[in-house]
Specification:
2 copies of one chain form a homodimer.
Chain A: H1 3-13, E1 21-23, E2 30-33, E3 38-48, H2 60-77, E4 81-91, H3 97-114, E5 117-125, E6 131-141, E7 156-161, H4 165-174, H5 183-190, H6 198-204, E8 210-213, H7 218-229, E9 232-235, H8 245-251, H9 255-261, E10 268-272, H10 277-283, E11 295-303, E12 311-313, E13 316-317
Parallel strand pairs in A: 4-5, 9-12
Antiparallel strand pairs in A: 1-2, 2-3, 3-6, 4-6, 7-10, 7-11, 8-10, 9-11, 12-13
């Protein structure tokens, strides 16, 4: 069963949400009404040894920091700001206290960078490798939450970041490819970037129709946005993927495939009304203050024809199943 | 390193909490200020295959339900009510979709029973066994949160429930002891009880000085309350543990040791001012509407003499390290 089908099935078991749950399962974060002027965002994401990281690739500080980034990215992509973090740790017998301490150094450093306060958690033994989960609470101004499913016909879809770059870094590590071509890609895999300035930016430019992060790959993100919105996505024939050319050539993978199948990127995927695209292209530079944050890439447009969630490339049906799927068969 | 020392160390790495974090690490739940009249409670707890449960002992529905109880128990013990739940699932490769579905049936059934709405989560692969974590959000009336650390000299300490009974069930399962003596104990281990009526009760009887649940054993709970409050605990010489007599005899463990070393009980441990003890003993019956919820047991009193957190039995120093410790050496 694919993760998507499993989640659809879980949804079918649930009663309708009570009034305080504005959004439950199905977006990057849940949205809960707890206050007059602001709503609560909640997201949860894991980092597991042997699945998301390996100790011969990353330090404990990097693993701890990354746990925070992957959660903060969800909160930022909805227009919110992190404020309180909870960590669940699973430790195999014999784990050294110095490893645990170094994990927490990374976690606390990430929490401080993104304005979240480590407020609780749980530690227990596990029979597998080290695993970490975080539940991150954030706040968003009333009516400022940006969902995945706000696309309509004609909307332009952009990414802000470097889709596929972290995936190239992962493939280089997995293939023990030590070419200098992968230096930046490996750094991106180990220490992903996120967009803490996005909530401020959105308040100044309130025309974003939909957004999410690309943590499971651009293809899966586009497909999820399309499905949620009841539109298909028609890809542009020639996105500018110059930043992938060296690594894609070295890996013998087409840059577009690398970007679409990506994952672990934590880029922003944004939908903009057609008549605001020029303005957006001019203003988005503020999100890319530092060249290492990536670039702005136009990917295509939403189309009310075609199957919801399908990705159409160059007029043909493309694979609508790009990106990572965690459950398997 | 013991879990307690590890948590103390993590606390030493943290900056002081910002104003919205009323309570962070160190109690059964965190307490966050998000609303005028009510505060937010957050707790997180895990159930791991091979650590907290075994598939030859429990059904997936039981495991899912138990995940909810162990979290709801923390919220209830603080005087709060659950409202929104997030589940993180780790699945080994090849996990069947029917197992996952049955876990969610148990989770959703528990959520419905305790008034929480399943609002999000995360599913990923794991290299170990199946593991589940829940982060549960609850609400508590402003100034109604009952902390662990409110004990003062002379306060009377009671448990409401059946401390040690679940532990006896666990030991019977682990020892493959199929004596009829263990029927109730095994049922309690598999399907722990909690106290959803406690928040209502507290509003009617606002004299509880401190409370927590006994999830890591009564000994560890008493010690944690004492440490947090700067008092020692002087045990009564003769708590009424008749409900443990058969199982304790069968296991050749003293009933008091079974109760103190317990764990997986989810009983309430309450501190009452000396001058309200008679009233409390009369009123606590409302919490025990159903005999299977257990009984009221008087354990002893808080004493400002002696080392904070020490448990003194019959005038002698008892083991202050009772209960489960998850980290190990």
């Amino acid at each position: 069963m694919r993760e998507r089908d499993l989640i659809d099935h879980i949804l079918s078991l649930l009663p309708p949400p009570p009034s305080g749950i504005l959004k439950g399962i199905g977006d990057d974060t849940a949205l809960l009404a707890v206050q007059e002027g602001r709503d609560l965002l909640v997201t949860t994401d894991s980092q597991r040894e042997g699945i998301h990281f390996r100790w011969d690739w990353m330090t404990p500080e990097e693993v701890g920091y990354r746990l925070v980034v992957v959660n903060a990215s969800d909160v930022y992509s909805k227009g919110g700001r992190p404020f309180s973090a909870f960590v669940t740790l699973g430790l195999p017998g014999g784990t050294s206290s110095s490893l645990v301490e170094r994990l927490y150094h990374g976690i606390i450093s990430g929490c401080q960078e993104f304005g979240a306060y480590l407020s609780g958690g749980d530690i227990s033994r596990t029979t597998g490798g080290v695993d970490l989960s975080m539940t991150l609470l954030g706040m968003v101004k009333k009516d400022s939450f940006i969902s995945r499913d706000g696309l309509s016909h004609g909307d332009r879809i952009y990414s802000v970041g470097h889709p596929g770059l972290a995936r190239a870094g992962f493939l280089a590590l997995a293939g023990e490819n030590d070419s200098d071509d992968f230096k930046e890609a490996i750094a991106r895999f180990k220490r992903p970037r996120t967009f803490p300035m996005f909530p401020d930016w959105v308040e100044k430019h309130p025309f974003i129709k939909a957004s999410m992060d690309s943590s499971d790959g651009l293809g899966q993100a586009l497909s999820a946005m399309g499905r949620g919105s009841g539109v298909s996505i028609v890809l542009d024939s020639n996105p500018d993927l110059a930043y992938l050319s060296k690594v894609a050539k070295n890996l013998s993978i087409a840059p577009k495939v690398l970007a679409m199948e990506g994952g672990e990127d934590y880029d922003l995927i944004l939908a903009i009304p057609e008549n605001r695209a020029v303005e957006f292209e001019k203003e988005a530079g503020e999100l890319l203050d530092d060249p290492s944050r990536g670039s702005l890439i136009y990917w295509g447009r939403a189309d009310s024809a075609g199957q919801a969630g399908a990705i159409m490339a160059d007029g043909c049906d493309a694979n609508d199943d790009w990106g990572f799927d965690h459950v398997g068969d």
